[in-house]
Amino acid sequence: xxxxxxxxxxxxxxxxxxxxxxxxxxxxxxxxxxxxxxxxxxxxxxxxxxxxxxxxxxxxxxxxxxxxxxxxxxxxxxxxxxxxxxxxxxxxxxxxxxxxxxxxxxxxxxxxxxxxxxxxxxxxxxxxxxxxxxxxxxxxxxxxxxxxxxxxxxxxxxxxxxxxxxxxxxxxxxxxxxxxxxxxxxxxxxxxxxxxxxxxxxxxxxxxxxxxxxxxxxxxxxxxxxxxxxxx
Length: 232
Prior knowledge:
Elements: E1 5-8, H1 13-24, E2 28-33, H2 36-50, E3 55-60, H3 61-67, E4 70-73, H4 77-87, E5 96-99, E6 104-106, E7 112-115, H5 123-130, E8 136-139, H6 146-149, E9 160-165, H7 168-179, E10 185-188, H8 195-212
Parallel strand pairs: 1-2, 1-4, 2-3, 4-5, 5-8, 9-10
Antiparallel strand pairs: 6-7, 8-9
């Protein structure tokens, strides 16, 4: 992957964990945040963990969007729509947005283990409605534990990533990004409307992890080897 990856909301646990893994894989990463200083502080933390050669910088979200045509959205659902409306003028034509958002509702103790209804069908479909025309959206990375991503970055991540999109090129790019994370297998999950199902799995995983005090992910078994391979 030759282009920079702009992680919008990259100072949160999920965004920081993904950025750390990609930086260790040799990718150029831009951390986006509402606060440019906080973005750079997070970038510095990742550089220290990922190694001296890590290419990580921090920018305010709009500047991060303007700096790359590959965006990964890792923000809480309650702020997703407002942020996308704010960033719309900064998103470059022809960009790919990979949405990891899950519409979770806070429950007892501030933890979220159920999903909210989304009029568009899923958080990813809401994103597709809000980004500029001609921008492609893929849903991915919802089921990967932020705790695992931020753990020992030398350890493999024991989780499959299901990618859903209506654009084959966006699916391919998201699968390539997933495969950069050691231990992860990327699977084409079909159309963007299937993101609704993948988002629901996240709520189930959170409930299981709370109950059993773990950091569980998902593995899809029984598929032919080709299901996990990127197209040439």
